[in-house]
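For reproducibility, we list the full input for the zinc ion complex.
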Amino acid sequence: MSMAPPKGETGIIMSDIPIEMRADRAEGVLHIAWEDRASRLSLADLRRRCECAQCVNEWTGERILDPDSVADDIVIDKMELVGNYAVRIHWSDGHNSGLFTWSKLREICAS
Ligand SMILES: [Zn+2]
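The corresponding predicted structure, in tokenized form, follows.
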């Protein structure tokens, strides 16, 4: 008898929370293990998608960050959990004001 509840019928949807996140500097990717899949995200692409107030105008939604200003070989120095809903990424370019929520990461992984 399995104790695991059927997928999609629990209050907390476990598949929306990463089981593991690992940045691979050599490959330039962030590996994310979800309950139902494994994803690889380009670090440079992820950095360019940052939606903090320094990267995106909070009022107009206009992107302030010039994607070309992000080096293709950018890496992650440190990742910090924020509550149980997001991660704060400390980038090698010194940027660390952006939060990536699990739902945002799921969205990026699905795109
Ligand atoms: Zn940002």
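Residues 56 and 63 are 4 Å apart (CA to CA). The radius of gyration is 15 Å. Both points were considered when choosing residues for closer inspection.
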